[in-house]
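Fold this: Sporulation protein
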Amino acid sequence: MSKRTKATIAVTLIASSVYLSGCGLIQFDKKEKIDPPQSVSYENGKTTAKSTAANKNQVQTELYLIDKNGYVVPQTFALPNSKSVAKQALEYLVKDGPVENILPNGFRSVLPANTQVDVDVKNGVATVDFSKDFDHYKGEDEQKIIESVTWTLTQFDSIKKVKMQVDGVALKNMPVNKTPLNADGLTRASAGINIDTNDVADITNTHPVTVYYLAQYGQTEYYVPVTRRISNDETNDVKAAVEQLVKGPDPGSNLVSGFMDDVSLLKNPQIKDGKVTLDFNKEILGSLNKKTKMISNEVLNPLVLTLTEQKGIKSVAVEVDGSTKLVTENGKQLTEPVLRPEKVNTGSF
């Protein structure tokens, strides 16, 4: 049985979060660099530059905000172009700041009101200097702040690690609940996001994988990254991540998975030149799609987001019983591997 029984999911909204090219490929943009990227569109499978003044004056930026269920979630906004997009991104995380005019329903900002920020990036490390107002957050938000700041900044290619300080003094621990901070800097792996340690008996013998599930607020759907802990005895993180997608989120989480319970891989994932190839049984298609060989967006999109979160994986190719003759919800042949989107949870929903 699908985990979708836990919530109602409107598939058409998810379809709006991807671009379908004329050649049948679900084509996503590449990850941006810290310099504002050139805006692009996709026509017949080719990339063409847009030159409108509006696009030149904006930069697509992921802000990791807190949703109504307390999850840290990326939301993508077209922010004003800036010489320091990293600093601007953090400024948009401040309560009562410029983000208040664009916050989606059900979301709130992360950093305490009046917090001033400065960001210095050297050799892949972003050092964030907060003003004293940073100390005025609620204890229950401490881990969320760590996750939000780390994931917001590491969306930029030039930032691999994040360090924090207040008024020029490096933080060894967070100010309120004293959560320790790695002196070498925070990464997505070390910070985690929406960490789920349920069913983990010995966390010291585990390592993290991040998977993407679905959430809904009213008629709006979005992807939520969740860090799960898997045993160190499991050496194939791709296989482990797929198993976590099939297992689905915690029953009380208000998250859902589009994967049927009996979905499984027929053989170990194959990784070559940044592409991972997965061969699934027919259950990946769902009971209604086996004849048409259609793979739903609610399965394909979280699968791509999840696996491209892993180091070295840039694209995902899907097979069913060894066959590549699959189609998307739009009826396009899935003839090419799927790339990760440039941004997650874009403003179309």
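The longest helix spans residues 142-153. Confidence is low (pLDDT under 50) at residues 4-53.
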